[in-house]
Prior knowledge:
Helix content of chain A: 25-40%
Order of helices and strands of chain B: HEHEHEEHHHEHEHEE
Oligomer: heterotrimer
Strand content of chain A: 5-15%
Radius of gyration of chain B: 24 Å
Largest sheet of chain A: 4 strands, mixed
Largest sheet of chain B: 4 strands, parallel
Low-confidence stretches of chain B: 198-202
Amino acid sequence: MSQFLRRITSLPIQSIRSFHSFDEVTPAKYISTRLKNGVGSRYVCQLQRLTIQVCKEFRTSFGTRDWIANDLIKFAREHPYVVVYVQPRRHRAPNLVGEYLAGDRQWIPLSNCDREKVNWWIHSLLTQKGDPQWRLLKQMHTDSPSVQGIWTPFTNKPIDRITRTYPDKDLTEMEYPQITATQQIQELFEQQKLNKTS
Amino acid sequence: MAFNKAQQLATFSRVWYLFDAKWQCPHMSGERIARILRGEHKPIYYPGESTGDCVIAINTRHVALRNDAWRSEALHIKREYAKTRYDIPLFKLHELDPTKVLHLCVLSCMPSDSIRRYDMARLYTFPDDAVPVHLIKNVCDQIRGSRVIPKRLDDLTPNDTKTFPQMFKWPKELVLDDLDRDKFVRVVPPEEIPKREVMLGQRAGKQNYWFHVPTSRHEEVKIN
Amino acid sequence: MVRLLRYGTIFGPLKDRWRYLYKRDLYKRRLEAGPEPERFRSALINWNYDAELYACTHRFGEKLNIESLRNAMTDASFLKQIVKQRTEAGLAATDQTTLAFTHNQELAKQGKQIAEDFLQKALHYWYPKFPQEGIEAITKFLLSESTIADISSGLGFKTLIRCDIPSPRPTMLTNALFAFIGSINENTGRSRAEVFVADFILTHLVGKDINEIWQVKNPMGLLTKVLEENGRQAPESRLIWATGVSSVLSTYVVGVYSNKEFLGKSAGATVSIAEEMAARDALRRLFETDEKRAQIPFDKLYKKGLLLDK
């Protein structure tokens, strides 16, 4: 009940994303495009048809009416791949319904939107893939993470480690230890010896 | 099994390491071991993921603490009720459980989150170099120590001492007998040692151990 | 949409007894009525089939005749249904042949042939060392009904197909896509149809491992055979790494060598699995299809000489 109230009160009226509660487990997936759109030599607009439901009299659809009067023809010319239906309905709120190639549907209420806002929403639907209901696991994803070969714990590990029996005495001590005073003296002594003989 | 599954297995496989703690400082080796147990040495490390490796530490009985730490440092135990906290000095702790010191050093090097216990479960400690066969079979790499293992005087052969270069000659006036320490020092009998009062379970601090630690058994003797 | 919320729960108790009973009765009746039957998209008021077809030609940038596209989108079941309706209405058998359109079976056959030829050609070009058997397996996967139906529904043919059921079956979707390719071939030429296949069917390989698509039962046997054909010695496998042998998460890394020459290596939970995977890795390296290999340049197939004219 409280969730329901929160949804009504806190969310803006126009929002394309549905309410998401972190208490619930919702379906999620990696980011992707439908049918690898744009990988080939052409891009296919995913919006298939657009239905604008509008009232001719009410004030709530003034912006929608404006858009239809001024921008609709231009829009249809620029985007011949979208079928636009205008549906006049008496004394009801204006709506925007987009249907996508994959069969998804988007519904956006346009009440009291001015012409610019209507244009914004229509272009928002135009550039979408169509399914905002999915939660994205990550903002980026790749199917081939590496072309050099994926790292394993064994890459760059000296190969002789497998042939030894553990505990191994060679691997116990430091790899590059500091020379002790005793060793320094011994080295100096040997150098002296060499100098004397030569 | 698909091929990408095999790659996944190879990347996330847990490698078993061996660590020989003989003559090593447990604090410094604890840092290394903790890093490996948490998987921080891997490029795939990510805080939420469990990418750590397994470590078998042997010879923990023979760890070498710095300075006077065996005597001066202690495990502070604070129990729930008032006036029940006490200290165990590390040499006593080492007698009770020879693996505990290294274990605690590794534990203190890990951030205190909930994953720490699971990471610590991948550490196997053994007081000597006797390790069960089924564990030593797993090992495929060894962690190097952080200290040079010193050579003790009684390890040296008489040949070593002979061939070592003579740095200087003793002056003739010097009586070499005077170097004998026992001449200047008297072993103090126990009844002469001043007794300290020990408060049980009162305060943390090396004066307040739960048993008596006599320290000064020797006394300087002045020879006129 | 029918509201299936139980009245009198989330909006507090209903005070009027009669209203409660009335709502409860409506609720029960709705449940008894069952789910709504599926409807054709064309049954809705905002539907103009000609406009949809026109948009469809522009969507893919193809210059198609609308009538030819209409034929391509007509399934055999639709024609059968119309004939049946006419017979029931009492029309003569001779009138049934004067329908203005045909179904898409012929076009689909043609389109499928084009797709198959092109895919084989492209795969042969890009993976020259991959055996013929494997290329056939990949082509079969790409042209299988599930794949093509998925592509077809993703391209929006689901609502455009004319058939006797509201949600078309996979075979209908498949036929529609192939018929679309066929009609491109008829209208604007074969090269254009091949570009369509490259753009929408061949790209289905993105993110997929073609070695997994072709399932080799006995990789070591195949490796031996391939090496024999190349005049090299039989493969030998050697254990490279082993860790956690007695634990649950044991890992073995096995390498495959031929005459002390490295072929491939892989990890596995047991030695036998690791050996099998190593043989697979060796095959991938021999066929040059491993991850080092670049993807097919889907947008530059012209430059590679696969498609001559644009």
